[in-house]
């Protein structure tokens, strides 16, 4: 089967779902592919409104709505954000770049305005706001894809959080969690739905189980090696010779990346200073 033509995980994994179960929503969800190339074509204002309304309809913890969305369409600002996000050209190509933020500024403001002392400077509040923002992003992504557009989340917006905060005019208590580039894809940028870890590795019934983990990891390695996914992308181990007898699949690639955090987000300083920067931006991690 030609992987480049596979547009659905259901097809890729040979999952048999009856017709009365399948619907357009499931088709969109299981056909997601991160697209990093966009046409020079604006998206209709009505489509952007639909995306934003869908994002704002996401679940939110205790209805606190501890997130904000920055809509960036100015080319010069997109160029600066692209540079701050690892020089990724597709951010500038996309007609719209959405920045999803964990936002406790608004909650601090209303607490103080109502005459109280804000006492929610906790790790829990940071996580709550981050989850709220992530759920909004996922809704926006699905909405865009449901209308035939392409989208890709951008975690590298966190590479330089203080600079991004300055560029976007954040008050204290706002942090750019992730971006979302949205637009009409360029011809030929899709490569087909990427295989995921087998269900038996990531889905557990009733309690966490490692009973089938090694078997599932081996199967996934075989799949990714067969696709030549890591050709030219091997993570160097600081001049160490290649390990004899170890095939370079997902497990070896991911294990190496976890020994070199800068290969995960392209910014070593992010790994070292994020807690300090978050505190400077008005979050407490305690």
Automatic annotation (TrEMBL):
<dbReference type="Pfam" id="PF00881">
    <property type="entry name" value="Nitroreductase"/>
</dbReference>
<comment type="similarity">
    <text>Belongs to the flavin oxidoreductase frp family.</text>
</comment>
<keyword id="KW-0288">FMN</keyword>
<keyword id="KW-0560">Oxidoreductase</keyword>
<protein>
    <submittedName>
        <fullName>NADPH-dependent oxidoreductase</fullName>
    </submittedName>
</protein>
<keyword id="KW-0285">Flavoprotein</keyword>
<dbReference type="InterPro" id="IPR029479">
    <property type="entry name" value="Nitroreductase"/>
</dbReference>
<dbReference type="InterPro" id="IPR016446">
    <property type="entry name" value="Flavin_OxRdtase_Frp"/>
</dbReference>
<feature type="domain" description="Nitroreductase">
    <location>
        <begin position="31"/>
        <end position="183"/>
    </location>
</feature>
<dbReference type="InterPro" id="IPR000415">
    <property type="entry name" value="Nitroreductase-like"/>
</dbReference>
């Amino acid at each position: 089967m030609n992987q480049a033509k596979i547009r659905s995980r259901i097809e890729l994994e040979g999952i048999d779902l009856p017709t009365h179960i399948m619907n357009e929503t499931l088709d969109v969800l299981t056909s997601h592919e991160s697209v990093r190339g966009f046409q020079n074509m604006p998206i209709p204002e009505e489509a952007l409104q639909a995306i934003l309304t869908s994002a704002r309809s996401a679940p939110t913890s205790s209805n606190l709505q501890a997130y904000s969305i920055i809509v960036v369409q100015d080319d010069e600002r997109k160029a600066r954000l692209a540079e701050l996000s690892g020089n990724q050209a597709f951010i500038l190509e996309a007609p719209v770049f959405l920045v999803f933020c964990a936002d406790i500024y608004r909650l601090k403001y209303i607490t103080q305005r109502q005459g109280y002392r804000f006492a929610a400077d906790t790790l829990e509040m940071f996580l709550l706001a981050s989850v709220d923002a992530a759920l909004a992003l996922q809704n926006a992504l699905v909405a865009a894809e449901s209308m035939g557009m392409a989208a890709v989340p951008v975690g590298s917006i966190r590479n330089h959080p203080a600079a991004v905060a300055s560029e976007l005019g954040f008050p204290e208590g706002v942090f750019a969690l992730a971006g979302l580039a949205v637009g009409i894809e360029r011809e030929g940028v899709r490569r087909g739905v990427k295989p995921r870890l087998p269900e038996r590795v990531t889905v557990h019934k009733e309690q966490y189980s490692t009973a089938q983990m090694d078997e599932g990891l081996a199967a996934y390695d075989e799949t990714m090696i067969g696709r030549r996914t890591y050709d030219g992308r091997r993570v160097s181990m600081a001049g160490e010779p290649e390990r004899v007898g170890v095939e370079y699949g997902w497990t070896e690639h991911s294990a190496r990346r976890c020994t070199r955090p800068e290969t995960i987000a392209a910014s070593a300083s992010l790994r070292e200073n994020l807690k300090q920067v978050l505190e400077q931006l008005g979050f407490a991690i305690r």
